[in-house]
Amino acid sequence: MARNLDAGRLARKARKSVARTVAENRGPVAVWIAAALLAALAIIQLLPDEPEETIPDTVDAVIVVGVGGLSWNDIDAESTPHLSALAEHGSLAELNTDSGRSFTCTLDGWLTLSAGAPAVAGSYGDSADCGPVSGDAITTDANGDSVTGMTDLVALNRDLDQGAEIGMLAAGTSCATGVGPGGAYATANSVGSLGEYAPNLPSGRALASLLSECPLTVVDGGVLPVDADLRESKLAALDEMIAALDEARGDDAALIVTGVSQVEKPNRLLAAVANFGAEDGHNLFDLPAERPGYLRLTDLTATILTLLDAPLPESVKGTAAGAAPDTLSYDDRQAVFDDTDVRLLAAAVAAPATQWLQILLFLALTFVAWPLLHLLRRAGQPGVKPPPLWLMRLNIVSALVCALFTAAAILADFFGWWSAPSPGVVGPLTALAIAVVCAFAAILIPGRRGPASLMITVSAFGIIVTVMAMIIHTEDPLGTLLGDYTVADSASNELGPVATGMFIASLWLLAAAAAWRLPRRYQAPVMAGTGAVGVLVVSAGFLGDSVPAAVAFIVGTCLAAALATGGWVTFQRFVWSGLAGVAVLFGLSWIDYQRPAAERGELGAFLGDVLGDTNGVIASGVGSNVVAIFTSPMSLLAVLAGAYCWLVLLRPGGGLRRAWGLYPPLRAAFSAAVVGSGIAGFLLGKGIVSLGSALAVMVPLAVIMSHRVLARAHVKDGEYSNMIVDAPSWVDEENSGESVSVESRG
């Protein structure tokens, strides 16, 4: 007994046991350590960096000329020589009129400029006037000039989700002069009082005197008509006005000419030019962490106040823009702006058509897959012939075209479809042609024709295309046909919702293909490490720059690691993996929340809204999600694909459950992709668009897997060898020589 209780012997046995355990699990421990290091690096990168200071030097005065409908197509040396000369030596941008309405009319734009936040001129549902602003509400009495009804507009916008505070442009300066009705609304304070007001622009010395009254002068340049002849004469008058302002301004005064509103649907990007009097060539407006050369109307408010060395009120949602050198000449830059304008106008028709085409492709796949499924389930009965080989091949081709269509639509932007006479037809057909070519290429690659190989090919192709789109997004954004690159998102570097869903699905499928070939103890750390890589890619500023996508990967990683070694998505597993992801996100959000409000990222702003700050992040996100769910064709695709997977493929005779049972990492990948893409879509404010994109990649591949599993379930002594399409699947590799009964398919 004393010998058995000898302390030294027990210690030696314990050391040997620990050493043996470490030796046996050295590989998995090393993989877990690598995954933990990747996760730590991803978390550090997810925190927002210190904002870059690209703000130009302050000036003594700023003169702003706002024009309804002014685009870069209107500016050239012949029709607008003075404005063109200003642009050649100024800061340039294409501007998005981000008012509180999806289509910004004239007064909406002026109020948004006044507030520095999305504002509206009337209640939602009321008709808006996109003509010139009326001066009927501007009155003069013993107390000076004022705008009647301004307090009602202030109260209306305070009650909206954005919480815009009208009058911030006037509040940020010691004095502001308004010229014309639009200028009056922009420079009035929250009670409607005007510092200085002139109904029309004077000339000569009177103009110089007016400009010297206040550091800020806002001039209503009117609204450009749609009719070509009337527009030309209006542009000529506008150019003369700009020439007079340029001549009368002081030496240290900035002259800004910008579009403020739309004139006809669809939305388009407008022109913005800021000239500081220098003659050293042009540059681009540059927002921190955004695309150079692209601006929002709310950013223009912040830029004006910063130029005047005025502190930004907390209610101003925009960011002050600095200046960045342009690598292109002025003529080339204007050509890029013009091409972007044409491209986005064409996308207003082509993007919905492309998404509807994707739905048609999925319906075509089900039209082939549904009868094939029934033929496969009956094939084991005596006297029943196997499905014809051409139907099996048609099923695979149609599934591949459907799965590759999203990536093909991204690549279609390289072919300039928007320049065609009918871009709404040419664009979707270009994407379809690319998808068909890629599908046949995937089939013809030697040794890549089984379901496992096809899954690797499709997912790797999706990852490569998405990463390429991330890299070149600043110079040449892709995804126009998918609705990822729009007027509203023109300034953003963030990965679009459709590309986000495709990337999430592709990365998890590739992770599953890598994990199921490894021993069981390596599968969970491989899935966790892959998720950390996903967070790194989508959160990097020079790549995805998307916090919502990173959040989606964090939650998906917890779920994938829990399911990688087998088992179903039980409520307990879902809750615990979700809580782990939420704990990580809360820690990151709390760290970000401790920063000053102006420097917070998306996580800190969201947490601030939860804790009672009036950011409007949650309210505006709920509204945009509801709109996306009921207006985007991708939402219908998500419902159709999800229903087919749940009601057909996951039924006992569907085959997918058997594939998941044989290869647990597949179940983990599908679960993580569905949950992650759903979260990403809602955080992006796009509803279930990202989920629809992910399912568009996964469900066609699931159809191929399920049908191959069912086909193999009926193989007996090679009787149905004709059902094999060109190459064995992983079921063949793993279960060669076995005869699998129909009853075990579930």
TrEMBL record:
UniProtKB keywords: Membrane, Transmembrane, Transmembrane helix
Transmembrane stretches, start-end: 29-47, 356-376, 396-419, 425-445, 452-472, 498-518, 525-543, 549-569, 574-591, 626-650, 662-682, 688-706
The keyword Transmembrane is assigned to this record: yes
This protein's name: Uncharacterized protein
Protein species of origin: Glycomyces sambucus
